[in-house]
Amino acid sequence: MKIRVCSNRNHELRSEHGDRADFATACTAYSRYILDVGQSQDWLALQIALLPCLLGYGMIGRRLKDLQTTNPPKEPNAYLTWINNYVADDYTEAVRTGRGKIQRSHHCVFTC
Questions:
Q1: Per-10-residue mean pLDDT, the chain, length 112
Q2: What are residue 8's phi and psi, to 5 degrees?
Q3: HSE-up of 27 (CA within 13 Å, CB side)?
Q4: What angle do the packed helices 89-111 and 43-70 form, to 10 degrees?
Q5: Over the Cα atoms of the chain, what is R_g?
Q6: pTM for the full model?
Q7: Judging by beta carbons within 10 Å of its beta carbon (0-12, 13-18, 19+), is residue 93 exposed, middle or buried?
């Protein structure tokens, strides 16, 4: 699976109140949490910790891709490459696989 990471300094994220959003702190905290879970807990716990990203990016990517046709932007979408990464066949297959593994693990935890 290829995920391209790009930084575009021409697009500054702002909160709903217009102030510059500080996403770096949240990303750092989440990254530290993932590392902590990976080092101190089991494989299932790590999969659960990563699940919001796996499922969330898939859902958001699909919604944004759908909006490209139902409500097309007036100007070219600067995030279209990002959107396409998360609706690509390889990523959607990873989401299906991850969701299936978690569902099977969850089922086994309560019934095995």
A1: 44 54 77 95 90 93 94 90 95 93 69 50
A2: -120, 105
A3: 4
A4: 140
A5: 17
A6: 0.67
A7: exposed
Residue whose token pair is 């959003």: 21
**CA neighbor of 47 nearest in space, from 2, 106, 90, 91:** 106
Give a three-class secondary structure readout of the chain: CCCCCCCCCCCCCECCCCCECCHHHHHHHHHHHHHHHHHHCCHHHHHHHHHHHHHHHHHHHHHHHHHHHHCCCCCCCCCHHHHHHHHCHHHHHHHHHHHHHHHHHHHHHHHC
- In the block, tokens 């279209």 appear at 80
Structural tokens at position 40: 């101190």
Backbone angles phi, psi at 32, to 5 degrees: -65, -40
Q: Of 101, 109, 11, 108, nearest to 50 (Cα)?
A: 101
